[in-house]
């Protein structure tokens, strides 16, 4: 199974924007790890916006 290129690019941009990691560092992550980081970032944003 392949992962949609647009979804991969969105995950990379999301992690890079919030954590300021390099493309190489993000691409070195296993897919489940990268997805977990996107979930954790979203949780941080939600908590921050709730006060």
Protein described:
- The structure is a single chain.
- The protein has about 50 residues and is mostly helical.
- Helix content is about 75%, strand content about 0%.
- The chain has three helices and no strands.
- The termini are far apart.
- The model has no long low-confidence stretch (mean pLDDT about 95).
Please outline the major beta sheet.
none
Which ranges are low-confidence, i.e. pLDDT below 50, for 5 or more consecutive residues? none
Net shape: globular
Strand content: under 5%
Distance between the termini: 40 Å
Number of distinct beta strands: 0
Q: What count of helical segments does DSSP give?
A: 3
Residue-averaged pLDDT, rounded?
A: 93
Helix and strand pattern: HHH
What is the rounded Rg? Answer: 12 Å
Would you kindly provide a brief summary of this structure?
With 51 residues, the protein is mainly alpha-helical. The chain has helices at 5-19, 23-27, 31-49. Helix 1 crosses helix 3.
Feature tags:
mainly alpha, single chain, 51 residues, 76% helix
Q: How is this fold's topology laid out?
A:
Layout: H1 5-19, H2 23-27, H3 31-49
Helix pairs in contact: 1-3
